[in-house]
Structures are given as structure tokens and as C-alpha cells.
Amino acid sequence: MSTWLEQLERELDQRLSEFLRNNPVQDQLFQDQHQQDRASALKRQRLQLQQDAEEQRRQLLALADQVRDWRERIQRADQAGATDLADRARRHMDELMTQGRTLWSDLENLGRRFEEVDGQLNALSRQPESANRKDLDRDWALFEAEQELQRMRRDAGFSD
User: Are 85 and 77 in contact (CB under 8 A)?
Assistant: First the structure.
């Protein structure tokens, strides 16, 4: 069972579709605005991905420093014969290494997502600008009007 809100939405969608069919210039403006909105959203998403990747890199570098510190601690514990402490430190370093692999994988995923978004943005920028379309529509309308005027002159007996 449809709610009144769903019915209203369908009715408004139908009216908008009919309006756009009857007004191609408005339809083109609507399409242009949609394309601009999509490009803006993709640019924001790309910027966010860049910021996320930078944060991931920072975390990876900090983690690498921690791993290096724990490696040194393990060596010192081994040299001192503190095997229990060295084993615990190794387990902790293994956890850090696992975190590092996870961060690295996340960074690779961010890179793939960035490439996808960048590709979509490039595809949008390669689409022809509607200004050419508007000029074409305007020129075509002028051509048709001129043709009609010439036809009317001929029918009225005026020479070209």
C-alpha cells in the first residue's frame, strides 16, 4: 500500500519529467546542474581520500618507528638473557606488524578508490560542454525561423 507521500513523489516526478520533455532548454540546464553537482561531489570525495591517505601514511610511519624501537628492545632483552621479556616483546611487535599490514592494505584500497574517483571526474570533464549544445539549439532555431520566413515570403509572392 502506497503512502500519500509516495503518491505525491510519483506525481511530482511525472510532472517534472513532462515539464523537461516539453522544455528541452530547461532539461539541458537541469542536466548541466546535475553534472556540476556530480563533479563537485567527486572533487570533495577525492580530497577526502587524499586526506585519509595522508593520515594512513602518517600512522604507518609512526608504526614503523614503534616496530624499530621494539626490535631494539628485543635484542637488548635477548642479550641480557631475559627470554620471557623478549618473547612478550616479540608478541607485541607481531601485533604491531599485523597492524602495519592492515594499514598498508587500507592505504592500497584508498589508492584504488582514489583512482576510481579520479577516473570518474576525468570522464565527466571530457563530456562536451552544453554551451556548444545551447549554441547549436539557438542556431538551429534561427535557421528554422529563417526557413519559415522564406517560405512565407514565397507563399505571399514576395521575392527573396
Answer: yes
